[in-house]
Design goal:
Elements: H1 2-16, H2 25-38, H3 50-53, H4 57-77, H5 96-133, H6 138-151, H7 156-162, H8 164-182, H9 218-234, H10 239-251, H11 255-260
Transmembrane segments: 56-76, 96-118, 124-150, 223-240
InterPro entries: YdjM-like
Keywords: Hydrolase, Membrane, Transmembrane, Transmembrane helix
Length: 261
């Protein structure tokens, strides 16, 4: 589900952008790309995931550490009806608690680290998104950065520091959307940990069996992904208004034509 996770993260970023004060097209593209990238991060708890392989041994070591921490937390907190599993994949990093904590840590880290910390988060999110969606994303992202560079006020370092707050929102939203996507699959997602449900601290949320998605199957690749690809285009600022105006121009009779009828 890597591509689908990233694409739904892109859509979520574009939808959320106005609410966090991201008002221009180039800012929205950067924000959405960051959300798309971090929509892959929860799978860092899997040794073969894109996030784990991104920077070789470095992200591999982070994955190993995350799996160890997740397993320890699972062992300490599992309820009487929780499954007898290791508690590594789809556990700690697939929770609302993790999304909120990572978002808050990102905001705090960017505020403390300044422009370089902001650039690091932006670059990491972009590379994650490109790994899932492809190199084409570099073109609009690069255009957005160039647009920002030539139109931003002279103090660009201060401009980078100012966006540290909404970067935390982008990171949290990406992880949140990932968990929502996994909660629609066969395995489900322990989204509400540590809230106990039916004797389970790690209760896997998922829809009724007939509605569950099978990852990588036809419903995901031929329906879900194309639909979100279309939504991801329409959500870019200005595209929906342009589409509506174009449709109205093509299918609504003009004033002169109406008068002659």
């Amino acid at each position: 589900m890597g591509r689908t996770h990233a694409l739904t993260g892109w859509c979520a970023g574009l939808a959320l952008a106005p609410a966090v004060g991201v008002g221009t097209v180039h800012q929205a593209v950067v924000f959405a790309a960051t959300t798309a990238g971090f929509a892959l991060l929860p799978d860092l708890d899997h040794p073969s995931a894109s996030a784990t392989r991104l920077f070789g041994w470095l992200t591999g070591a982070l994955s190993w550490l995350l799996r160890r921490v997740s397993a320890a937390v699972y062992a300490l907190t599992k309820g009487p009806r929780d499954e007898k599993v290791t508690g590594t994949h789809r556990h700690l990093s697939h929770t609302l608690l993790f999304a909120v904590a990572l978002g808050a840590a990102t905001s705090a880290g960017c505020s403390a680290g300044g422009a370089w910390a902001v650039l690091g988060v932006l670059l990491f999110g972009l590379l994650l998104a490109v790994a899932a969606l492809g190199d084409w994303l570099l073109l609009p992202y690069g255009g957005a950065v160039a647009w920002w560079y030539f139109t931003a006020p002279d103090d660009r370092v201060a401009q980078l520091a100012d966006i540290s707050g909404w970067l935390g929102a982008a990171v949290a939203a990406g992880c949140f959307v990932h968990c929502l996507g996994d909660s629609l699959t066969e395995s489900g997602c322990p989204f509400l940990f540590p809230l106990p449900i039916a004797g389970e601290t790690w209760y896997e949320l998922r829809p009724p069996k007939p509605l569950r998605l099978h990852t990588g199957k036809k419903v995901e690749t031929r329906l879900v992904f194309p639909v979100f690809a279309l939504v991801g285009v329409l959500l870019v600022p200005g595209v929906w208004d342009w589409t509506v105006a174009t449709v109205e121009h093509l299918f609504t009779p003009g004033a002169s034509q109406t008068a002659t009828q």
